[in-house]
Specification:
With about 450 residues, the chain is mainly α. It has 17 helices and no strands. It is globular.
Length: about 450
């Protein structure tokens, strides 16, 4: 479990750690805005594309070797990114890094399902939730620290180099500690379904990750073929599943805990990850914080999330989705407090004014991510654990892309229309983030209420 979580942390960290290094990378490699966008968003794009196929492959062929291959590929790609001498080199390395991250992560969730009994899964899923929350939030701090130590010219390279020794140790220990699982028969991998899903997700994510780079509304026309391809995928899966295991078990969406839990994940990640994108821009460009200072300002959220994630994992079996509801309410309250603090305090002290409300938001976040994942996967058969977890994570990646595109558009729109007022732009973007959290809250409350109705019906039948 330790090896799996370290590898998961490493791959998720690279989603956010690059943000604070973008000015240094741009200056040293002379990147244009489009190339810079691909360094940042290309990782998320290939990460999302590989999640479901890799999860299905791990289900069918065993997870240890897939996990080791993914970590090895991620380690090589990290070394290549650190050695980059041109924009194209770095962009390709980041695309491979993202693909490797998409291979590794569904194996982590699948291993938890496979190696722990249902009653025992709360704690490891709590640790996984802490890993997700902390890796996303602590990325800017670690990136700022590395740039501070190694300087702006070389510090960005160490953001990638740091993965190499960790990856090598993870490979060695995974081969030693993660048990191999023999399979009596080889399951089909449904190549047609994999292809349709990959094309559909690509067409869906591309205009989102390129939202700032591609001006004009024409990019959104890609959503039409995306919907058509995904509809074709759905029809194919229904037909294929009649005689063989499909990429995604569509019957899982008939399970309320899985379908509503996936929706909660999509909506919450739409707001959750956009916070760090806009806050980093506000601190570094608006308040002229250094990379390290910006990272430190975000740390309270990471600390709060780390504290409650493990606790939430242990308590979720007792409280159910009610714990997720409490967490979402706390996140919304913390973000509303952040808006209030920034309204009352301006200038360089604004970062300090947000410490307490961001800590509150982080405490709430820890009660959302890991408990929601535990409940969502609680009724999933072990043989479909990898692909089911991958669908959940793909939804989270799509939510992330939608959130960053939507919240980012509001942020830059306010910035352009109010003469560069960074504070107003960030406060407005936080209001949109709260709307995402509120939508997730509605889905979670719907699950709680439906569960109470089911319990009442069962009691009356008894």
């Amino acid at each position: 479990m330790s090896v799996a979580l370290v590898a998961g942390f490493m791959t998720l960290l690279d989603i956010s750690i690059v943000n604070v290094a973008l000015p240094s990378i741009r200056a040293y490699l002379n990147l244009g805005s489009g190339e810079l966008q691909w360094v940042l968003s290309g990782y998320a794009l290939t990460f999302g594309l590989l999640l479901v196929p890799a999860g299905r492959y791990g289900d069918a062929r065993g997870r240890r070797n897939v996990f080791i291959f993914g970590v090895a590929l991620f380690t090589l790609a990290s070394a290549a990114a650190g050695l980059a001498t041109s924009a194209l080199w770095l962009v390709v390395a980041r695309l491979v890094q993202g693909a490797a991250g998409g291979i590794v992560n569904p194996q982590v969730s699948g291993l938890i399902q496979e190696l722990f009994e249902p009653a025992e899964r709360g704690r490891p899923f709590g640790l996984l939730g802490a890993t997700i929350g902390v890796s996303t939030a602590v990325g800017p701090l670690l990136g700022g620290l590395l740039i501070q130590v190694f300087g702006t010219a070389e510090g960005w390279r160490w953001i990638f180099y740091i993965n190499v020794p960790i990856g090598l140790v993870a490979i060695a220990l995974a081969a030693r500690w993660i048990p191999a699982r023999a399979r009596k028969e080889r399951e089909t991998l449904d190549p047609v379904g994999v292809t349709l899903l990959g094309v559909g997700v690509f067409l869906l994510l591309l205009p989102l990750v390129q939202e700032r780079e591609w001006s004009g509304p024409a990019k959104w026309l890609l959503l039409v073929p995306a919907a058509a391809v995904l509809a074709g995928f759905w029809a194919w899966e229904r037909r294929f599943s009649r005689h063989a295991p499909s990429v995604i078990d569509l019957e899982l969406f008939r399970v309320r805990s899985y379908s509503l839990g996936t929706l909660v994940g999509v909506l919450y990640f739409g707001g959750f990850t956009s916070i760090f994108f806009t806050y980093t821009l506000f601190l570094q460009n608006g308040l002229h914080y250094s990379a390290l200072q910006a990272g430190l300002a975000i740390t309270p959220f990471a600390l709060g999330s780390a504290v409650t994630s493990a606790l939430g994992g242990r308590k979720v079996s007792e409280t159910g989705r009610t714990l997720v509801v409490a967490g979402l309410v706390t996140v919304a309250a913390g973000l509303a407090g952040t808006i209030l603090a920034l309204t009352l305090v301006s200038g360089s002290a604004a970062g300090w004014a947000t410490v307490l409300p961001l800590l509150v938001a982080g405490l709430g976040s820890g009660l959302v991510i890991s408990p929601n994942q535990t409940i969502t996967l609680s009724e999933v058969p072990v043989r479909r654990a990898g692909s089911a977890a991958a669908v959940l994570q793909t939804g989270q990646r799509i939510g992330t892309a939608v959130g960053i595109a939507g919240v980012g558009a509001v942020f830059f729109n306010r910035l352009d229309h109010h003469q560069g007022d960074w504070g107003l732009a960030f406060r407005t973007s936080l209001a949109v983030t709260i709307a995402f959290v509120g939508a997730a809250l509605i889905a979670a409350v719907a699950d709680v209420r439906a569960g109470r109705v089911d319990d009442r019906v069962c009691a009356e039948d008894s």
